[in-house]
Amino acid sequence: MSVQPDVKPVLIIGGGVVGLTILRTLTCDVKLKGSVMLIEAEDHLCSHASGHNSGIACTGVDAPMGSLERALVRESLSNMRTWLDRFNLPFRPVGSLVADWGAREGEGEGEGEGEGEVMNKLRAVVEESHVAGDCDVELLTDRAKIISLEPNVNPAVSAAVHIKGEVVVDPWLIPMSYASHAVENGALIKKGFRATEVSFDENGGVWRVASKNGEVLYAKVVVSCVGNWGDEMFNNLKGKPAPFVNKPRKGQYTLFERTEGLLKRPLQPVPTDFTKGVFVFSTLYDNIVCGPTAEEQENREVAELDEETLEMLKETGKRRLPSLAEKKIVRSYAGLRPATSERDYQFQLDPMRNFLSVASIRSTGLTASLGIGRHAASLLTSVFDFLEVEKEKVIKTTKFKDVEELSREFRERKDGKVEIPFLGECFVTHPITQTGWSGC
Ligand SMILES: Cc1cc2nc3c(=O)[nH]c(=O)nc-3n(C[C@H](O)[C@H](O)[C@H](O)COP(=O)(O)OP(=O)(O)OC[C@H]3O[C@@H](n4cnc5c(N)ncnc54)[C@H](O)[C@@H]3O)c2cc1C
């Protein structure tokens, strides 16, 4: 007697913030019938880009005008505060300052530019923000006003744009809240499962996904959210090259010891088409961070640190915030943005082979995550009408413990883990959270 395989309605490949938000949205908002499943190659969720970012929910001003990225950033940001409150997650709604000191800082802005040129760039930031739908921005040309907002910045600051909508968040807790909510409501997560073979049975309309050690899963629809491996996975799913090529972009960071009250708002240079530039910002836990850089590299997996760049970051920090000269560096880390040859987010849905590929979520994926989940779910449900929903399903929501309690647990356990509702013991992968919770 042959045993019928257990066919999941949807199998998501990749346990970063993108895969996790889609898992949650399909389970809790769409209320798909049957358990949606997510597989993650590593032993811990958010081991790659989603565990090595800046942790700033940004307003999307640097995303191209009219892009899907900008639309999803805006949509997500307008729902983010409600989400954070719903799960008792910490945040600091401080806004940010795009500022100019008239000196070169790391990535090419400033040096040698006349005051007129700088003002034009800052005016362009204001205009771009308005076009992006963010009207709560202000051009500050009065040095005293800037210093009154941030008393510890280098007093040579000449002008700044105050973008009021940006929010400093805990970059690890947000994706974990998606994972927790999804599992609470029936989703399944399998870690340590690297999909090495995928094949589609066109007659039966079922995907077979196998790992190197012989485990096999079946699903009607596969969603690829594999970050820096997006083009390779697309190729495997479609049998043809992807319409984009992954180009990992490294960002290195330096973290200074905790110093309460030194800086409230992230300080950022004028963004370029290539990068938002090096930020100097305070985490929720009062570590001052300088970074990220934007360095293209071939390697998709390993983000190495180099002394010269870390020195440059330290100097950038000290220039913008002179009292950093007396502060100790406690940590450095680097992450790889899943950038591609394309500037915008890449959503490719294949109605013949029942898959959705989500790629090129390069430097705003945390901010845009609520929008990404909603967008992916609406693409899937509008095309795959065989996906059934359980309209009457009651969705439960369990809040997280207070962050003080989580950080105390983290310090006391000493194994790098905390207990997350419905997920059990979870390893904290993000250096910002690790450093903040360890009290350095
Ligand atoms: C330096 C830096 C700074 C950033 N700053 C910000 C910021 O301030 N604000 C913001 O909103 N965003 C920021 N981002 C962007 C954000 O972090 C990314 O957009 C987001 O993390 C991308 O998520 P992802 O799920 O696509 O990729 P990832 O987090 O990389 O997840 C992909 C997952 O897929 C898994 N995988 C790959 N292949 C397989 C396979 N075959 N089988 C199973 N699993 C597989 C990987 O192990 C990985 O865990 C930054 C990113 C970086 C690197």
Q: Looking at this structure, what is the CATH superfamily of the largest domain?
A: FAD/NAD(P)-binding domain
Low-confidence stretches: 103-112
- Tell me the domain tally: 2
Number of strand segments: 22
Shape: globular
Largest sheet: 8 strands, mixed
What is the top-level CATH class of the largest domain?
Alpha Beta
Instruction: From the 3D structure, determine the CATH topology of the largest domain.
Output: FAD/NAD(P)-binding domain
Domain FAD dependent oxidoreductase: 10-379
Organism: Triparma strigata
Protein name: FAD dependent oxidoreductase domain-containing protein
Pfam families: DAO
Write a structural description.
This protein is α+β, with helices and mostly antiparallel strands and 440 residues long. The chain folds into two domains: 7-71 and 171-246 and 342-438, FAD/NAD(P)-binding domain (3-Layer(bba) Sandwich), CATH 3.50.50; 96-164 and 248-337, 2-Layer Sandwich (D-Amino Acid Oxidase, Chain A, domain 2), CATH 3.30.9.10. The protein has helices at residues 17-29, 68-86, 115-131, 143-149, 173-184, 230-238, 307-320, 369-383, 403-413, 431-438, and strands at residues 7-13, 37-40, 56-57, 91-92, 96-100, 137-140, 159-163, 167-169, 188-191, 195-201, 206-211, 216-224, 249-258, 267-268, 279-282, 287-291, 295-296, 329-337, 346-350, 355-359, 417-420, 424-427. Strands 1, 2, 9, 10, 11, 12, 19 and 20 form an eight-stranded mixed sheet that branches. Strands 13, 15, 16, 17 and 18 form a five-stranded antiparallel sheet that branches. Strand 19 and strand 20 form a beta hairpin. Helix 2 (68-86) crosses helix 8. It is globular and about 75 Å long. The termini are far apart. The model is unreliable at 103-112 (pLDDT under 50). The structure holds flavin-adenine dinucleotide (FAD).
